[in-house]
Amino acid sequence: MTLCGNDEGDQNVPTILAERRSYVAGRWVTGETPFAVENPADESVVIELPATPIAEIGRAVTEARRSFDSGVWAQATPAERARVLRIFLDRLEQDRDALVATMVAEAGQPLAFAERSQFLSGIALARNTIELYLTMPEERTNPVPVDELTRGRVALSIRRYEPVGVVTAITPYNAAFIMALQKIVPALLTGNSVILRPSPLTPISSLIFGAAAEAAGLPPGVFSVVVEAGSAGAELLTSHPAVDMVSFTGSTAVGAVIAAQAAPTIKRVALELGGKSAQIYLPDAVSKAGAGAAAVVGGMAGQACVAATRMLVPQGAKSQVIEQVSKVYAALRVGAPTDPATALGPVISAAQRERCERIIAQAVEAGAILAQGGGRPTELERGYYVQPTVLDVPDNANPAAREEIFGPVLSVIGYRDVDDAIAIANDSRYGLSGQVYGADPAAATAVARRLRTGAVNVNTALFSAYAPSGGYKHSGLGRERGPDGIRAFQEVKHLVIGEFR
To answer: Count of domains in the chain?
Structure first.
């Protein structure tokens, strides 16, 4: 894959991926209608990217169906699929520097985050997913009581795991590369044919998956990457009768639309949606609040569905915590993502910055006190920057405590006792993640067990191919990563075998 700079002649500008074509069913396709991909750090146009023609998106579906039904990939052995996908990952690693530069340019992510949390973590996640998959049986015996087997003259009762079929993978802008790997690797490992459609805001980095598929020798039709400025292609991919499953990460509002589009053809849906996670500090752990606050906004400027943007602290320690957290936020370096010293880059767009500003204003109008930040950095004339913001929130009814802001905004809420803290944390339509901090791990774990959320971090965090992620309530359906995330792309067939008499 060739590379190019953002500005011809400027040797200090990092090179980004130069691929502009879509990869459809084993063929490279050049679109006709370009759309601009904007750099949120300076509001410049990174590139004009030709959109995949809708007819080609339709061909991606029909060829995915053909490839799956032919069994050319689905009937390969697990070891063979793993071998091919290791080559796929080797190809991605060849363009490490350009991929990182591309993620910085199209998403405004600080350099260290793009390299460590997206590229390196993504490759490690994918390789470990392969190893995990190879330990999981394709068939296993059902634990049917012997008397039932005898009465039915049954020799074997087997649970068999088979691929779902054609899978649409729709990824978000905030972590396009790693989220793509989180979907397409388990989907391909289990024998499905896959069509990847990245967010129109950050599509460039996803085009490299076509080169990886070509280098690995994936059979034509098994994998496609399509890009677009709008949603027509996504609507086709979520409603087409030849598609068996849609895996989507994004907002709850869009997830509900996708579920409705998939419903008439009874597609399987895997949805990782919004969150309004709480971090609870028990009385003996309030000194840790500063570090927890920094984690909310670091890297992605608060644009993470799992970000614990509600900080729950004992009412008596609230003013102390707000002072502590405000000092941490005031010291965070906000600026150009290409500067290694930057801790906080921009949000993705002007519309997202306006949403942050609107909800902050609504929160203050409803009684919150602005303790730190709340506006745009005056020293940055261009770019969609929002100051890291601390809100002293009176209660959990405040708009800042209810809405997923998707920006660097933290709400600090006081609680009376542990039962009150748990009630506040659970008082949300979301349930994606949570955190509990306490000097006594047993006491903190007891709190964690009472939270209605898909994951809870107690005094630490873990992102692993071996551990699942997913939400309760409006935060989604199904799980990604771990054995559950792999099985999500498989159907379960019961085989009962008896003697012929």
So the answer is: 2
Q: At what angle do helices 418-426 and 441-448 cross, to 10 degrees?
A: 40
Token reading at 57: 């998106």
Q: Name the β-bridge partners of 27.
A: 24
**Mean pLDDT for back-to-back runs of 10 residues, the chain (501 residues):** 40 75 97 96 97 98 98 98 98 97 96 95 98 98 91 92 98 97 98 98 98 98 98 98 98 98 98 98 97 92 96 98 97 95 96 98 98 95 97 98 97 98 98 98 98 97 96 97 98 94 78
**Strand, helix or coil at 66?**
helix
- Determine, yes or no, domain membership for 123: yes
* Residue tagged 């996708």 (tokens): 258
> Residue type for 247, please?
S
Please pick, among 19, 38, 63, 272, the residue that the annotation labels catalytic.
272
C-alpha distances in angstroms, 390 versus 148, 210, 281, 318, 427?
Answer: 63, 42, 16, 12, 21
Contact in structure between 151 and 484 (CB atoms under 8 Å): no
Catalytic site includes residue 272: yes
Which pTM does this prediction carry?
0.95
Domain of residue 100: give its range. Answer: 3-273+478-494
Q: 94: which residues sit within 8 A by CB, 6+ positions away? A: none
394 in a structural domain = yes
What is the torsional sign of CA 59, 60, 65, 69?
positive
